[in-house]
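Annotated sample (chain length 171).
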Amino acid sequence: RDRQCDVAQIETVTLLTHAEAVRFCDNPSPDTDLRAKFSLQHVVALALLTGTVDMDDFSEARWVDSMVTNWRRRVSVQEDAQLTAAFPQHYGASLLAILRGGERVRVDCVDSLGDPDKPLSHDQIVAKARRLQQWSGRGEPAIRELELAILDLPRMNDLGGLMQTFEGNAR
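Output written by the structure step:
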């Protein structure tokens, strides 16, 4: 996001990352929702196409979508020795895009948002929890009740109240 470019000008993308990410997530053709979640190519393609990735993006409708499939074909994943050496202290990645005309655009990310050295803010955590609960089908009253119970944890003497909230909100 530091360097903006016209996505339509991108011919190929190489994602450089640590060996563990390559081992677990180098999956250019996911054929299930779970495999889509563990496909770096799928995530990069979606991020380039839409600017964001959310839970619905791992559904069959998205991993069979011809536009997403075509973008995944442009994405390769490679290990980077420096990023592997920095792992697990840093979960970094670099994205190298080759544009029409040969221009190269590289973006480096030492720590991903949510990693220990780049934690989510309180508001980001609450927003993420809310999105995941909405995606799971929970209604707004149940989401708010659970949110308040979790935010009240520092003042609780035990987890009984929280457990009751979970049990009362079970789907």
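Annotation: Residues 19 and 171 are 38 Å apart (CA to CA).
Annotation: The chain has nine helices and four strands.
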